[in-house]
Amino acid sequence: MPEDVSLYLTRLPFFTTPVTVQMAVAVGDRRAVRRATRDVLTPRPGTVTFACTSGSFVSGVQGEYVLRRTMIEAGAPTASTTSGALIDALQVLGVTRLAIATPYIEAVTTRLVTYLADHGVATVASEGLGLLGNIWRVSYDQVVDIVRAVDRPEAEALFISCTNLPTYDIIEPLEQALGKPVLTANQVTMWASLRAIGRQAVGGGRLLSAPEQQLSMA
Predict the structure, then answer these.
(1) I need a surface site. Which of 68, 138, 149, 160 has the fewest CB within 10 A?
(2) What does the angle CA 98 – CA 167 – CA 188 come to, to the nearest 5 degrees?
(3) For residue 217, what is the DSSP state?
(4) Is 18 exposed, middle or buried (0-12, 13-18, 19+ CB in 10 A)?
């Protein structure tokens, strides 16, 4: 975040259940999203975002659209989601072939592959850590290892999924090592949110230095 931009946060209900498809669907419950949106409207933000990757791709393209509409209907001036931000970022970079690294079990990773395919993006390789919980405990070293393992020559970029993974400090080093854009969940989330209010995110990486292009939202 730029120093002169304020970020207000509220949490959706915390689930102690394993990180499965069912849990990801529950995270996007419309009543909870509507309530959380209203919770952050007091300071009159310029935009509201749903900062969860799996919760915004698990129900497909239509599910992501419903999340944005729910936030708008609850009073958000503009709205975005992590998975929607990813698609915008891929369009800005002209990427249609992607390698993805996730902390998820296979069933959740497969939902991401399907979501990308429905947006015309081919997943050339995917690797998941198979975690059912404690994703926030994954280290930078583990993230770097899985990204290197999933990279393929035909992949135009790499995406590291899940807003619970630490990635900020390794984006630029990974891009230099792999020679291609590296996108991460928190990076695209904040990039899209700031872009919605005419600002730029702070940090390294090709996405943040890409020329801005206007994209129409569905």
Answers:
(1) 149
(2) 55
(3) -
(4) exposed
Q: Tell me what pLDDT residue 215 has.
A: 43
DSSP symbol at 3: T
User: Tokens 């931009």 correspond to what residue?
Assistant: 5
Q: How far apart are CA 61 and CA 57, in angstroms?
A: 7
What is the pLDDT at residue 71?
97
Reported residue count of the chain is: 218
DSSP class of residue 131 equals: -
- C-alpha pair distances (Å), 28 with each of 46, 85, 146: 22, 16, 27
Instruction: List CB contacts of 141: < 8 A, sequence separation 6 or more.
Output: none
CB 71 within 8 A of CB 193: no
The residue assigned the tokens 């849990």 is 23
Q: Tell how many helices (H) and how many strands (E) occur in the chain.
A: 10, 6
CA dist 27 and 59 (Å) reads: 11
Query: Starting at the edge strand that comes first in sequence, how are the strands of the sheet with 97-102 ordered?
Result: 122-128, 97-102, 157-160, 182-184
In this prediction, the residues of the chain whose per-residue pLDDT falls under 70 are: 212-218
Q: Does the pTM exceed 0.90?
A: yes
Residue 128, SS3 per DSSP: strand
CA-CA distances (angstroms) from residue 87 to 61, 77, 92, 174, 207? 11, 21, 9, 21, 12
**CA angle, 111 as apex, 166 and 163 as ends, to 5°?**
15
Q: Which amino acid is it at 89?
A: A
Structure tokens at 40: 């952050």
Strand partners, 125: 99
